[in-house]
């Protein structure tokens, strides 16, 4: 029987040990941020951007930098953003994830101004509920970085995940945040986002607040050889044998998509445990792939259903799945363009050339072709 110890990470950020062929990229990203550059990492979800950011923050924190990560996904107000930011910054000193909430428990009066000292950093936190005070609270949260740098004499590194959601919270927020950040040269920002066209607009158009504010870096693909080395090593740690041929089949099925490849590898592992086998065969691969596809079915159904909101979108995506070009003789270029933009923002398609598009996730292409 195979000994169960570790598994292939699926569904969230991965550890340093499971970041495949990322060392040079991580070193460069860490160096750029510590030197004061602002960086943009844009790309579809599930390619490992958050895992990279978390590893960079771990390294920088070990080197003595103050770090903070704010996930914009699900944030609905400036006040909520402010509390997330303040909590992340204060955690550098308190080690407590929800410092602001704990302070609020101590100060119940709705309009009380308090001054507290957190590990030698004096803070003024207003809990007033006036609508007009939200931007003042944001400024006060960002002012925590001034206090951190005075206390430690190091740069502050901020990571904003799903940054394209900023204007959804408040249409004026990008301009206000940019105005505050540019006055704080001790802050380096790493912006992450999963909607490339929206991010391109935010950082590349001259009338946008963050125009040319950050250097855009592509997240490199994981080379097949690196995948092969990783998979062979991980399986061998469990006493499982997999040949380069089987690895090649696995990567052809998943296209090297990071999360899908991990998912199929995980299903291989658990299928072998059930079968009490230690050899990956094509039969095992097929069983694992079908199980992985079934586990993704609900997500794929939701993604496919969202296309029905755009007239002709499902038909166009089917054309691309079957290798046809999206622009046909009778198609409206404007309508096709809108559908393609939506599909790229949802991480369905990627542009590979003039008028040429491919599925970002080959397993979703397989799902579409079976409809």
TrEMBL record:
GO molecular function: ATP binding
AAA+ ATPase domain span: 35-223
Superkingdom of source: Bacteria
Protein name according to UniProt: ATPase
Pfam families noted in UniProt: ATPase_2
Gene3D superfamilies, per the entry: P-loop containing nucleotide triphosphate hydrolases
């Amino acid at each position: 029987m195979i000994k169960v110890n570790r598994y292939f990470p699926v569904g969230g950020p991965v550890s340093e040990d499971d970041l495949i062929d990322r060392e040079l990229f991580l070193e460069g990203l860490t160096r750029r941020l510590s030197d004061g550059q602002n960086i943009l990492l844009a790309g579809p979800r599930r390619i490992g951007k958050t895992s990279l950011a978390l590893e960079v923050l771990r390294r920088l924190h070990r080197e003595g930098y103050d770090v903070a990560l704010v996930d914009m996904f699900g944030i609905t107000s400036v006040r909520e953003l402010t509390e997330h930011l303040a909590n992340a910054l204060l955690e550098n000193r308190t080690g407590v994830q929800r410092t602001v909430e704990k302070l609020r428990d101590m100060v119940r009066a709705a309009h009380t101004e308090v001054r507290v000292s957190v590990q030698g950093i004096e803070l003024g936190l207003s809990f007033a509920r006036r609508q007009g005070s939200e931007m003042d609270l944001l400024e006060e949260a960002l002012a925590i970085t001034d206090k951190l740098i005075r206390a430690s004499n190091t740069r502050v590194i901020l990571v904003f995940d799903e940054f394209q959601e900023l204007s959804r919270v408040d249409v004026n927020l990008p301009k206000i945040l940019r105005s505050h950040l540019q006055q704080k040269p001790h802050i380096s920002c790493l912006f992450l986002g999963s909607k490339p066209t929206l991010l391109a607009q935010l950082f590349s158009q001259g009338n946008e607040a963050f125009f040319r504010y950050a250097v855009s870096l592509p997240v490199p693909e994981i080379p097949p050889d690196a995948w092969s080395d990783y998979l062979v090593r991980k399986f061998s740690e469990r006493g499982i044998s997999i040949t380069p041929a089987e690895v090649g089949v696995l990567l052809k099925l998943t296209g090297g998509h990071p999360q899908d490849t991990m998912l199929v590898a995980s299903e291989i592992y658990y299928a072998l445990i059930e079968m009490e086998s230690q050899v990956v065969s094509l039969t095992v691969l097929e069983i694992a792939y079908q199980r992985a596809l079934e586990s993704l079915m609900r997500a794929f159904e939701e993604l496919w259903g969202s296309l029905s909101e755009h007239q002709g979108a499902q038909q166009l995506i089917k054309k691309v799945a079957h290798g046809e070009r999206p622009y046909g003789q009778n198609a409206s270029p404007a309508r096709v363009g809108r559908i393609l933009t939506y599909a790229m923002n949802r991480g369905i398609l990627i542009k590979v050339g003039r008028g040429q598009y491919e599925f970002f996730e080959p397993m979703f292409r397989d799902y579409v072709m079976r409809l």
